[in-house]
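Input sequence (168 aa), recorded before submission:
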Amino acid sequence: EVTLIDVNHSKLSKVEKELRANANGHTMLKICVSDDNNGKLKNILKDCHISICTTTNLRRIIKTEDMPENTVIIDDSRPEAISRDAGHNKIVIEGGLMKIRGLDIDYNFGFGIDDNVFGCLAESYALALDAFKTLKPTLGDVDLANYERMKKFCLDNDIKCGDFKSRD
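Predicted structure, token format:
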């Protein structure tokens, strides 16, 4: 069972339509429109075991006390939508981390200083390395041809998925 939540009903409907068109018949979809002004999000999340948050936001989306016990949330938002210090039986994992061979990281965004970089920085690195010969920036809707070129470019240049991180 997959639950999709968004504040924008038309975007949510578009994603729902695409997922239903490609569903294998074994996946149940639940669709919820919520801006969480009424606490609806807490009730929706209580039945979710793994959550993935991808948004650009100006505030925290989920309060630590509203996260269900024994849950894992992957937060791929910028800025962070969920506190990384969730506490007992609640794990928030940094989403969108990449590794680039030979890159020396000297900043700390709260997940430690090592060879992990944000995916958006990995894309910028790949675009610069490619010098716009084959790749285009990922903007707007997904361009599958560009995605395939990006995937091949990353494999050829040893750009890989990063570690799963939760705080330090």
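Checked by second reader. The longest helix spans residues 9-22.
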